[in-house]
Amino acid sequence: MPKLLYITNQICGPGGLERVLSIKASYLADTLGYDVHILTLNQNKQDLFYTFSEKLQYHDVTAIGNPISYFFKYISGIKKVIKTISPDIILVCDDGLKGLFLPLVLGKPCPMIYERHVSKNIELQNENASFFNKMIAKVKFKLMDLGASMFNRFIVLTQGNQNEWRIQNMEVIPNPLSFYPKEDSLSKLSNKKVLAVGKQSYQKGYDRLLKSWKQVVQNHPEWHLDIYGTIDKNQKLDLLANTLEITANVHFHQPKKNIAEAYQEASIYVMSSRYEGFGMVLTEAMSYGVPCISFDCPYGPSDIIKQQEDGLLIENGNIDGLAQAITTLIDNDQTRMQMGIKARANVKRYDITSIALQWDHLFKTLLS
Q1: φ, ψ for residue 36 (rounded to 5)?
Q2: Is 289 left (phi over 0), alpha (psi -120 to 50) or beta?
Q3: Superfamily of the domain at 183-350
Q4: Helical H runs in 186-225?
Q5: Helix %, strand %, coil % for the chain, to 5?
Q6: Is-contact 356 31, C-beta < 8 A?
C-alpha cells in the first residue's frame, strides 16, 4: 500500500486537528492498510492526548532559535525525513503560513495535499480590528491563495470554506465522526445541564454565550452551563461570569480525555463560535443524541445542523436569540427528545467509513 506522510505541528494537545488526525490516520492504517507516518514539530516525546494506532510511525523535527535558524532547521528536518522514508503522498496539516509554502521550499518530491482545518477569518482576531490590521490580513490572504495553489489538491471541510479561497485545485471532505456510541450510552436528556466544548478563545465566543446564559438562568436558576476547554485567563471569562452574577450556574473545566461522559450528562449542546472550520463538537454531541444550538457562523454549523429538525441555528451574534433558543429546548422536553433522536440519525453521514473512502479515492486519483 502507498506510504503517506502527514506533516503537522505538535499532536500532544486536545485540539480538533489532533482529534481528527488520530481518527483518520489510525483508520487509514488499521482498516485500509496504508503505511502512515506522522512528522511533528517540537513534539519532544510529549504524551499524546488522543489515542493513535500502534501501526503509525512518528518522526519529530526540533526547530528553535531566531526565525531564520528556526525555519532552516524545520525545512532541513523535513527533507531528511522525506529522503529516509520516500513517501508516495505528503499531506500538510498546518494552518500557519509556513505550511502553505512547503511545496515551494521542498520542491514537491511527490503529490502534495493541504488540509485546511480553520476558516480564513482566524486571521482577523476580532471584529474591531484596525484598518492597518485588516490590510495586513488582506495581503496575507493573497499569499495564502498563492501558497495553496501550489498543492496538487487543497482540502477544506465545507462548501463555505471553499468559497473563501481563490484557487482551482480544491475539494471538500468533511471531518469524520469521533465516535458513534451504542444506544445504551446515549444521553437521557434529563439532566439540567447545557454543554460547550472548546478552548477559551475569541473564536469560541464564550463571552457571547455567558451573556445569553444570564438571560436563561433568570427563569431557570436550576440549570447549569459546563464549558470544557483549555482555560485562558486572558479571556477573563470568570470575571465576566462574576459581573453577570452567574458564577453559581457556570462551571469552567480543563480539557477532559473522556469527554464522552460530558456528552452523556448534557441535555443541550451550545456552540457560540464567531467562526469555525467545521464544528466537530457538534457532530460529537449529536452522536450522543444531544440536540445542538449554534450561531450560524462561518463555517460548519449550517452544514451539520438541519434547522428545526435536529437542532437550532441562530443569527450569528444574536445574544437574545441564543438565549431564547436555549430556553425553548429547556421548556419543551418533547421537542428536545425528538431533536436528539433526529440528531443521532442525521449525523451518521459523517461516519469514518464513508469519509475514509473519499480520502482513499483521492489518493488513488493522485497516484494513477
Answers
A1: -105, 125
A2: left
A3: Glycogen Phosphorylase B; (3.40.50.2000)
A4: 206-219
A5: 45, 15, 40
A6: yes
Would you tell me the crossing angle of helices 333-346 and 319-331 to the nearest 10 degrees?
Answer: 100
How does pLDDT run across 174-227, given as a tens digit for each residue?
Answer: 999 999 999 999 999 999 999 999 999 999 999 999 999 999 999 999 999 999
Count CB neighbours of 335 within 10 A: 14
How far from each other are the two terminal CA atoms of the chain, in whole angstroms? 13
For 294, phi and psi rounded to 5 degrees?
-145, 145
> Cβ distance 226 to 241 under 8 Å?
no
pTM of the entire predicted model: 0.92
Alpha-carbon dihedral 106, 367, 158, 94, rounded to 10 degrees = -20
Is-contact 114 99, C-beta < 8 A?
yes
Flag whether pLDDT at 127 surpasses 80: no
Cβ-defined contacts of 216-221 (< 8 Å, 24+): 216/323, 216/326, 216/327, 216/330, 217/246, 217/249, 219/327, 220/192, 220/327, 220/330, 221/249
Structure confidence by residue, pLDDT tens digits, 15-62: 889 999 999 999 999 999 999 999 999 999 899 999 999 999 999 999
Q: Domains of the chain: which residue ranges?
A: 3-176+352-367, 183-350
What does the CA dihedral 303, 237, 317, 314 come to, rounded to 10 degrees?
50
Tell me, what amino acid is at 360? D
Residue ranges of alpha helices (H) inside 62-205 are 67-85, 97-100, 102-106, 131-148, 159-163
Q: Is 155 helix (H, G, I), strand (E, B) or coil?
A: strand
Give Cβ neighbours of residue 249 (< 8 Å, ≥ 6 apart): 213, 217, 221, 223, 224, 225
pLDDT-derived band at 131, boundaries 50, 70, 90: confident
Per CATH, domain 3-176+352-367 is 3.30.200.210: no
